[in-house]
Design a protein that fits this description.
75% of the residues lie in helices and 2% in strands. By secondary structure, the chain is mainly α. Helix 8 crosses helix 15 and helix 8 packs across helix 16. The N and C termini lie far apart (62 Å).
């Protein structure tokens, strides 16, 4: 085995062993109860809350998907997406975190998002709980698939082992890890993985800029590509059957720069709306031990987010300068972080840096599997089919459904040409539109009714599918990101139906006021 490859295997293997040890450390405590397994007993501190929220949220697309967008289309598309995400991160921590932490404890000490929504409206027949659980199962299965794609691409690029084999192996590793450790192991390892991710991004960016001759040289090179370094324009690679053409000199060909107008910017910024409905982030708000520590968590989270997103975009731009014709499909462009790590750093350091991709993938996929599993076992199995189910029965069902979701995610991820960014964007829109508006109205408008909540969730979730599959392909005005129209339609459906239906009971109103006073204290 070549020495370089051996050093990569040693460093990345050591990282994976460390992750497993964290899971084993927390296994005993996690298995004491379903409350500990799914929410950590509401006992995590501000640093772990912030880092685990961001690490589980960003996933492998931060190190592969976003740099790939910057490499392929240039600055504007990636930068406006990053700006929208940074804004959404800040507002979510500022507005939603404290109210949700207090309200979820008051509303039946809820430990899942479906549980909270159902308890908020004092459901008897559990319609909201069932709908929420089903939407979580659907969209998190897609999300998990995107993580498996990331692992497959990483190891295929590094070792030349067939993509499908590596993707399945990565899925098995994540599944094993989540089963033994639950939420506590997930949150603790996510803290470590957030550190690895931001360190990897900054290290690779610095190495790339130095190798390219400095920031000014990178800027000069990418300015030569029409629209590539514009804030209101976008590059247009000349492609044939999905592969970018090259000229006689071997350099990639680009057409005339495309416009990046107000509607496109608004569509891209709407990524930020997704945060209000992201279960993996909202659960961290619910799990922090002391609501008074959320301000500190917010500052930590937004700093991590801005630095990481900025570095990811810059890596894509720098990679186009260093390797202009190395990655000639949009799917291949998502390997720019790997190419820079492998070519610019010593093998042992490169292995550690590329563990950042593993970190991003593990930190997200474990969240997705755990939350989707809790949605089924707590909210459908125990909530509907067997209300007197013991904790042991709930845990057994959890692990069974976790295996099912992982297998389905593997099936979705079998296509090696999948573009991680596109897969993530669909699931992100699904969560943002299904849960974002109903969460905001439930937390901040007392007059929200159960019927309004159901109407909003159904409108948002269905619109995402309809807009993505049927309307968006028409282009023009209809080409906007499906999250924006779905979020707006859901936000209109909730108050409209709530006003037409009978108002909430006095018990619900009193509980709402308790949560409001608790958050204001």
């Amino acid at each position: 085995m070549p020495g370089d490859r051996l050093q990569l295997i040693v460093s990345m293997g050591s990282y994976m062993v460390l992750v497993i040890l964290i899971g084993l450390h927390y296994a005993r405590r996690a298995n004491e109860s379903s409350r500990n397994f799914f929410l950590g007993g509401r006992a995590i501190g501000p640093w772990v809350t912030a880092f685990s929220a961001e690490a589980s949220d960003m996933s492998g697309w931060l190190l592969m998907g976003l740099p790939g967008v910057a490499y392929w289309f240039g600055f504007a598309d990636a930068a406006w997406t990053a700006i929208g995400l940074a804004m959404g991160t800040y507002v979510n921590w500022l507005v939603v975190a404290g109210r949700l932490r207090n309200y979820s404890a008051i509303a039946g000490d809820s430990i899942t998002i479906p549980d909270f929504l159902s308890s908020r409206f004092r459901e008897k027949n559990k319609v909201i709980m069932t709908l929420a659980a089903l939407f979580i199962l659907v969209f998190f299965t897609v999300y998990a698939a995107s993580c498996f794609v990331t692992v497959g691409k990483l190891f295929h690029a590094l070792f030349g082992i067939p993509y499908q084999s590596m993707m399945i192996l990565g899925a098995v590793f994540v599944l094993f890890y989540v089963v033994i450790g639950g939420f506590l192991a997930e949150s603790a390892s996510d803290f470590m993985q957030a550190v690895v991710m931001i360190t990897a991004l900054v290290t690779v960016l610095m190495a790339g800029v130095l190798c390219a001759g400095g920031i000014s040289n990178v800027a000069d090179n990418i300015r030569r590509i029409p629209g590539f370094f514009d804030f209101f324009g976008i590059a247009r690679p000349v492609v044939s059957e999905g592969v970018q053409k090259t000229g006689p000199d071997g350099q990639p060909l680009f057409g005339q720069a495309g416009p990046y107008g107000f509607l496109t910017i608004l569509s891209t910024l709407s990524w930020g709306l997704g945060y209000f409905g992201m279960p993996q982030v909202l659960l961290r708000f619910m799990a922090i031990r002391n609501p008074g520590e959320l301000g500190k968590s917010r500052r930590i989270a937004i700093t991590w987010c801005v630095v990481s997103l900025g570095a990811a975009v810059a890596i894509g731009l720098t990679g186009r300068t260093l390797y202009p014709a190395a990655l000639l499909t949009q799917s291949a462009a998502e390997r720019v972080f790997i190419e820079m790590s492998r070519n610019l750093l010593p093998p042992l350091i490169a292995g550690i840096v590329m563990s950042g991709i593993l970190a991003a993938t593990i930190s997200s996929s474990d969240s997705y599997l755990l939350i989707a599993t809790s949605a089924f076992s707590k909210n459908i199995f125990q909530g509907l089919f067997k209300k007197n189910a013991s904790d042991r029965e709930v845990m057994l069902v959890s692990r069974g459904i976790m295996l099912f979701i992982a297998v389905l995610g593997i099936f979705i991820a079998m296509d090696e040409s999948s573009v991680i960014f596109n897969v993530v964007s669909f699931a992100w829109a699904g969560f943002g539109a299904t849960f974002g508006p109903v969460m905001l109205f439930s937390l901040f408008w007392k007059r929200t009714t159960r019927s309004g909540a159901i109407a909003g969730m159904m409108t948002g979730g269905i619109t995402v599918f309809v807009w993505k599959m049927l309307i968006r392909p028409a282009g023009g005005f209809f080409g906007i990101y499906e999250l924006l129209p779905a979020f707006l339609l859901s936000s209109m459906a909730i108050p409209f139906v709530s006003i037409l239906s009978n108002g909430p009971s006095k018990t619900i109103c009193d509980e709402f006021e308790r949560a409001r006073r608790s958050s204001a204290a």
